[in-house]
Amino acid sequence: MYMKRCLDLAKNGMGYVAPNPMVGAVIVHNGRIISEGYHVEYGKEHAERVAINSLKDRSMLKESTMYVTLEPCSHFGKTPPCTDLIIESGIKRVVVATKDPNPRVSGRGIELLKNAGCDITFGVNEKEAKELNRRFFTYHIKKRPYIILKWAQTLDGFIDTLRKPTDPIAPVWITNELARMLVHRWRSEEQAIMIGTNTVEMDNPHLNVRDWTGRTPLRIVLDRKLRLPDTANVYDGTIPTLVFIGNNSSASARKALFASIPNMELLTVDFAKGLESQLLKELYEREISSVIIEGGAMLINSFVKRNFWDEARVFVGNQFFGDGVKAPTFKGSLFSYDQVGDSKLFTYRNRVKE
Q1: Above 90 in pLDDT, residue 282?
Q2: Which residue among the candidates 48, 189, 190, 294 is catalytic per the annotation?
Q3: Is the pTM here over 0.85, yes or no?
């Protein structure tokens, strides 16, 4: 019961704490919660410190139990080690949901607490704790961001119509407003959002958070030949944007033009040597723990082919196109199903090891 409360608290950090994990903590004295906390924002106090520092009368701590969703940190980062404060506070019993996969912590925090005389209970609601922080675990274990694929398709399996040069540059909507609001919530929960050149040319999206409250993720655009116009919405300079270009891209004058746009960074990669691996390595080194890929079909299929994906969120709208751009094909295990207005949402997980 107490650990479930910790998990509920931890969820409040969604979209604000990455690349740190979401963590919740409660302190229980004689069967009653006397203090609680969660990691509110990256760089701010961790859940354990919030819970301890929120308690006015610390004399009860020596007879209290702390419940926490992740092994307390044992190193100096943006904040001092939580293990030090727990030991100093006199708490003698700590219940931990799961170990921290970060090599700087993994097992060391528990060991320090044990050596200080703390009674440690480990593995309570471990499955739920790992599910909550699946981005964090993937980042540290697989050394790459957690990858979410997202698209909408018609009942007959198309994600777009066959566009003509005279067609307007705008999205062809397959789902409803409720589904689009949900997508904006998803964007606020991830650190980065990625699209390919064709999607920018056809839809000219902003890739920001408008229909929800939260942070807008880092925009990632694949523009191999640097052919997209500088007037494209993704190049408006309002949001940090990383553009991957080929090593044979346009003249230096054009590169200089794009490099002068605020919040814009151009990164040259060799597309012939496997863009996906280079891209994920770069994002890992930048401490980007999650990315949602919103299209198009060619880009999504390239990540599926390399087995670089963890979750697929597929909307099926109540429409038929008859012909058009075929939806991506993949093999995944159905994780959940939801009805979103007149659209259906299928969520899949990748169970195949890389």
Answers
A1: yes
A2: 48
A3: yes
